[in-house]
Amino acid sequence: MSQLDLAYAPPFSPAKDPLVVASFVSENIIKDKCSQISTDEYKAFVKSADENYILLDVRNNSEFEEGHIPGAINIPLHQLRNSIGQLDCQKKIIIYCQKGLRGYVGRLILKNNNYKNVVSISGGYKIWKMKKEDITLPRLEQSNFS
Question: What is the mean pLDDT of each run of 10 residues along the chain (146 residues)?
């Protein structure tokens, strides 16, 4: 699917069709270009983790101060290459950002610097925060549909 050439027609189809973008993401996961875990898998891992791991937040300092996953250390993405020696390459590294892109780039930086066991949290802090809080949708009254 990633090789489909779908017609670009502004009223009907964007330049980057969602089907093609979704297939790129799937292909990256299958080919281990982007090892990910969901927030639920992360929570389960933390509950059963006897192994030592690093939870790495690659967002800016101000984003980190506004909120972060408990236990995370913060090395902003733009400082990661210069700070790579601070991380133990023998430990499992779980990396995240706000939504996923910087976590993906951070994972590639680490992987290309001989860090073998690096995964990113799918959807980043935004999804973790949404799942952490109980989100209830308001019930619509029957009369609203009349």
Answer: 76 80 80 79 78 90 92 94 90 92 92 90 88 53 41
DSSP line for 69-90: -TT-EE--HHHHTTTGGGS-TT
Q: Which stretches of the chain are DSSP H helices? A: 18-30, 39-48, 61-66, 77-80, 101-111, 124-132
Token pair of 97, please? 């950002």
Beta bridge partners of 36: 120
Whole-model pTM: value is 0.75
Burial class (CB in 10 A: 0-12, 13-18, 19+), 138: exposed
Containing H/E element for 56? strand 53-57
Q: Edge to edge, what strands does the sheet with 53-57 contain? A: 36-37, 118-121, 92-96, 53-57, 73-74
Three-state DSSP at 97 gives coil
What's the burial of 63, exposed, middle or buried (CB within 10 Å: 0-12/13-18/19+)?
middle
Distance CA 75, CA 144 (A): 48
